Amino acid sequence: MDGKPGDPDGLEVAARELERGGVSLVVGTALDFAGVIRSKAVPTRRLRSFAETGMGASPSWVVFCVDNGIAFTPAIGVVGDLRLRLDVRALRVIGDGMAWAPTSYHEQDGTRSALCARGRLIGVERRAVGAGLAALMGVELEFTIVAPDGSRLDQGAWAAYGMRSVVARRAFLVDLARTLEDAGVGAEQIHAEYGTDQFEVSLAPLPPVAMADTAILARVLIGLVADRHGVAVSFSPLPFAGGSGNGMHLHLSLARDGHNLFATGSGPYGITAEGGAAIAGVLDALPALLPVYAGSVVSSLRLKPGSWSGAAACWGLENREAALRFLAATSGNPHGANIELKIVDPSANLYLAAIGLLGSALDGIERALPLPAEVSGDPAQTAESARLRLGAEPSAALDRLASSPLAAALFGPDIVAGAVAVRRHELTTLGDVDPEAVTDALRLAWS
Fold first, then answer.
1. Which of 13, 148, 198, 433 has the fewest CB atoms within 10 Å, i.e. is most exposed?
2. Where are the alpha helices (DSSP H) in 191-312?
3. Over the stretch 179-218, which tens digit does the pLDDT of each residue have?
4. Which residues contact 49 (CB under 8 A, 6 or more apart)?
């Protein structure tokens, strides 16, 4: 934005340009600890107020639950008010008369709130830079097309990864590709997935905060396109009981002085000592951080051996049953060597999940942890399968998150308490519900 006297930051000019371009509504989004996208919007002429003063939001916004309950904590109750401030640097026109940008939570005095997950991720990204590391993160978004009421669509036989499936949904997919490009979202590929009416959009790697912002925008745009075509999308970890689950896989690469930590060393597949320590740190933190990555009451239904969801706490080269899949530096990997955390699903607060992945990798490097042994086959077929199994005891995982010193350091005690309260609310209200009933009830909860 080009500033002028009386408008040094260019916000008035930007607002007028948006209005001339047909934008009437500016929407700001924030993620709660249940992974649901919440929003506030203003007329375009109020752009400056949204950016500088912010829009009011109760602290309870962060502990809204998937069933619209509120999981209060000692620090989050009925008293107080926060301000949602729009980050105009990320402002995008998204069509249908709207523009979008992410928001951050601030206190009334202008300081960033301790409850702001996006603000915590900004801090962890800066910590990596301060340590001399360049971090890039990518994300794969899986979703399922459903009828507007959430029921299955009737379209005949489905070909997993098949051209027939693309042809059947070509109008939707062409519109989606165009909409993502127009909004500046770097879609790397779009393809039909294994499950019926399931698709995946892979996004280009970006610095962590930009990755999370862009992924949230992509989810918003997928929903907008679906609505234009008279359908809805489910981002539930498991839309239909017994069916295929939706993941939100996170990729991470780390470089020091231009050298990839996962490709320029003498370890397996070129992993450096620091790269091995990063992998070790992520794996070491998995039991405590599991509720951050895949903590919803539906997540445990997806996170099972044999489902390619990464339900085992180990790493392996191109191992889709390992929680941490390693992608080596080859001619078939244009972005270079990286690690993929497969257990993350769309019910996660993506800012918190990114903090967990990057923060635990940095912790491993700082502690100089040794690279654990690789699991090269199916983890469920090893003698250690029971020890490696993730996701079987959600309540115990919440206990580990609540008492984890690393989680407290990465997220802050208020966010940990809030995240635990939200997931305990889900377990209390929906944990004993039949899988078919709970997947039906929550199919559109993250849409």
1. 148
2. 208-228, 273-294, 299-302
3. 999 999 979 999 999 999 999 999 999 999 999 999 999 9
4. 42, 55
Q: Which token pair is 174?
A: 């062409």
- Residue span of the structural domain in which 129 resides: 122-442
How many angstroms separate the CA atoms of 321 and 338, rounded?
17
Give the number of C-alpha atoms closer than 13 A to the C-alpha of residue 163, restricted to the C-beta side: 0
Structure tokens at 149: 């009421």
Q: Does an H or E element contain 305, and which?
A: none
Residue 184 burial (CB count, 10 A): 12
Which one-letter amino acid corresponds to residue 52? E
Of the residues 87, 114, 141, the one at which a domain ends: 114
Residue 6 — very low, low, confident or very high, per pLDDT cuts 50/70/90?
low
Do 220 and 246 belong together in one domain?
A: yes
CA–CA gap between residue 5 and residue 120 (Å, rounded): 34
Q: Where does the pLDDT of residue 407 fall: very low under 50, low under 70, confident under 90, or very high at 90 and above?
A: very high
Are 232 and 329 part of one and the same domain? yes
Look at the block and give the residue holding tokens 């994300």.
139
Q: Would you state the pLDDT for residue 13?
A: 84
Compute the CA torsion angle 443, 342, 421, 424 (nearest 10 deg). Answer: 60
Find tokens 């590709």 and name the residue: 177
